[in-house]
C-alpha cells in the first residue's frame, strides 16, 4: 500500500522539525533518529494518530492509551497539539482530550506499532485493519454520499463532538458522540434547559431562555407519582421537539443509540425528582408505540449524576409494570450496553429468585413469564447463567436452595426504588383516529 | 466449572419444573446408584464453587465497578432556576405542544445572533435581545406560512429552502410589535442572509426531516412510514415494488397452469369412468344375449328353424337402443329384451347358467359339432376370395410350437360390418389356437383400431 509509505515519510519529515521546536535536542543527528525504535520518542512529536502510550488518568496513575485524534492548540507552537486518546482498558465513553504533559513519552510505541502494522498489511490484512487504513486515508472533498464519506462520518463519531453539557444543577462530561445539528457541533459545551431540553451554546442564552421557559416538568402526562418521584409519558408525535431534544441528549450517554428515525413512533417515559424548582429529569426510557418484536423498551438512560442510586432499576421495573398492564410479555431492544446488561440481569435475578423462594410446587418457565411479563428467553438465560436449572434423571429441575438463592440475590444488589403499582394511572397507548 | 457429559434435551417452557429446595432433597429421593452419586457430587461441588464465588465477589465487585466520566454541580443553578414550582394535587396532564399554542417564543438567540445584535446596538439600547428573539421567531413563522400558502412546503429536506417572506409583508404583520421600520429592515436583512446561508429554516421544528432514503448518519429523525409496514416478516418480504409484482404475476401464471392441468386430469378420469361403465354395461348385455342366443339356438336345434337373419336383425335393434341410452342405461330386470321379458325360461336359467355352461360341452355334444373357426354368433365368416378381391391381406401365420402352421387368428365380419381379425379369443382371452376350451365367444366391444 502506498499509503503506508506516506506515513513513514511524514515521520521522517516531522523529526527535524521537532528539533527546531521546543523539544530538547537529542544527541544523535537528524538523519538516523527516526529509525531507532523507542528512543525516537522525543523526536517524533507531534505523536501520530495510532500511537500507543501511557497516559496519566484522573486517578493519577498511568494507563495505556491509543491516540485517536490530535489537534493543534490555538496560539501554540507548530508542534503544540492535544491528543484525543482511548484508554484501552476502558469503554470508549472515557475517551478524552489530554494535554501532552499527561503522556509519558518514554513509553511511546509508535515504531513498534508501525512495524506490526507493516507486517500485517503485507502478510494478511484483516478486513478491520484494511478498513482502518482506508479510514485514515479518506480523501476529503467528496460531497456526495458514497462509501468514502460514510466512512468519514464513521470516523467522525470516534471523537466526541460535545465534551460537556450543563443540565440543571449539573455539569456533566459526555460519554459519546451525538449527531447534533451542524450549527452546534463546534461548541465544546452545550447548555440544556432542564425542562424543555432546548440546548444553547452560551450560558447567557440559557439564562434568557430560563426567564421565558414556561415548563417546569416534561410536557406529557404524569402517570405515576410516589413521594418526590414522578413519571411522565411524552408522546413523540405530540411533542416532537422535546422528543428530539431528549434523543440528542441521550445519545451523549448511549453508544448504540440511533437517531436515524423520527420520534413520532415512540413514547418517552421521563422519570423526575420533583422539588420547588420543578421536576428534574433523572432518567428516561423510550418505547415503541407498536413493537413487532415485543420490545417493551427501546432506550434506557439514567443521567450520570443520578446513576448508582437505583433509578435504572426503577425504570426497568416500570417498563415491566407497563407490560403487565398491557397483558404482554416484553423484552428490551438489543444490544444492551455493559451497564444496561448489568441492570437487567440484576432485575431479572431479583424478580425471579423472589418468586422461586416463595413458590411451592412445580412451576414452568411460561408461568414465570406470565407472572413477571419477562420474556421466556430472558428467564431461561438468567436462570442458566446462575446455574439454577439442572438436568437430572431425564428432566430439568430448578435448584432453589435458599442459601444459594440468597447469595445470588445479594450479588444482584439492592432492588432500588420500588414501583408502587397502585400509584400508576395509565392506559396503554391507542392510536387516535 | 465442569459440564454434564450428557446433553440435556431442550427445555420446554410450558413444562412444569420441580423446584428443589436444598441439596438434601437430592439425596433423600435418590437411590444410591453410581450415576446419581456423581450427580450429587456435582451438585455439591457446584454449591461449593458458588461459595467460593461469593467470597470473591466483594473484591471482584470493586474491580468490576465500571468507570464513567465525571460530573460536577453548577454554582449558578440556584439563581438560574426559580423556586416557583408547586406540585398539583392531581397528576399533571399534558398540554398541547408549544407550536400549537403559538404564544411561546420558541426561538433562542444563538451566538451569531447575539454577536450581530451587539454590533447592531453598539452600546445603544435600540433592541433588547428578547425583542430580537421575538422578531426572528415571528419572521420564521410568517415565512413558513407564506410557503404553506404557495404550496412549496417540502415534506423532506432536499433542495435549499428559499425565503418567501417579503419585507413589506413582514412589516405589515409585525405592526403590533411597534418596531421602527429601519430596525425591522436591518433585522429582516440579517435574518434573510442567515437563512440563505443555512438554506433551511432556523427554527428547528420548521426544518423538514431528511429524506427516507438518505444514508448520511449525520442527518437524524427521518420519517418512517410505519403505516405501510406489514405485520409479519413473511409479508414484509413482499414489499410493494415492481419486482415483487412480477414475482406475484409469475406465481399467478403457475397457479393457473396448475389449475388447467388439474381440470384436464379430472376430465380424463371422468372419461375413464364413463368408459368403464359402458364396458360393464356391455358385458352384462352380452352375457344376457349369449344366454338368450343359447336358448334360441337350443330351440332352433329342437325345432330345426332357420334363424340367423332374425337374430341379426334383433342384434341391430339392440345396438341402436344401446347407443341412444348411452351410459345411463342400467342393466337389470327392466332392461331385459322385451321379447323375453315375459319368458320364464330366462328367469329360470340365469341362476343355473354357470353350471350349464360348464356342463354343456360334455353333456350336450352340440358345440363340438360346430366349426371351431367360426365360433361367434352374430358374425359372419370371412370369405378369402372376397378379401383378396378387395385387396385385404390376411395377417401372416406364425409357426406354432409343434411345427405345423396353425392360424393364430380368426377372421370374421363383426356385428358392425367391420372386418376383424382376432388374435385372442375375446371371451377366454387366450391366444387363438391355444384355448383350452374351444367355445362360443362373443365379440367384445371392438377396439378402436379393430
From TrEMBL, chain A:
SUPFAM superfamilies: Acyl-CoA N-acyltransferases (Nat), Chromo domain-like
Chief localisation class: nucleus
Pfam families listed in its UniProt record: MOZ_SAS (PF01853), Tudor-knot (PF11717), zf-MYST (PF17772)
Annotated EC: 2.3.1.48
Main EC class the enzyme belongs to: transferase
Segments for region (Disordered): 1-45
GO molecular function, one term: transcription coregulator activity
Cell compartment(s), UniProt: Nucleus
One GO term (biological process): regulation of transcription by RNA polymerase II
UniProt catalytic activity: L-lysyl-[protein] + acetyl-CoA = N(6)-acetyl-L-lysyl-[protein] + CoA + H(+)
Domain MYST-type HAT: 157-428
Entry annotation: catalytic residues: 333 (proton donor/acceptor)
Record-linked PANTHER family: HISTONE ACETYLTRANSFERASE, HISTONE ACETYLTRANSFERASE KAT7
The name this protein goes by in its record: Histone acetyltransferase
Species classification: Eukaryota, Viridiplantae, Streptophyta, Embryophyta, Tracheophyta
From TrEMBL, chain B:
Region listing for Disordered, in residue ranges: 313-335
Any one GO cellular component localisation term in the record: nucleus
Stretches of the chain forming a coiled coil according to its record: 248-288
Lineage top rank: taxon: Eukaryota
Main location: nucleus
Ranges of Polar residues composition bias in the record: 323-333
Subcellular location(s) of the protein: Nucleus
GO BP annotations, alphabetical order: regulation of transcription by RNA polymerase II
Domain Enhancer of polycomb-like N-terminal: 39-140
Record keywords: Coiled coil, Nucleus, Transcription, Transcription regulation
Family: Belongs to the enhancer of polycomb family.
Protein name stated in the entry: Enhancer of polycomb-like protein
Phylogenetic placement of the source organism: Eukaryota, Viridiplantae, Streptophyta, Embryophyta, Tracheophyta
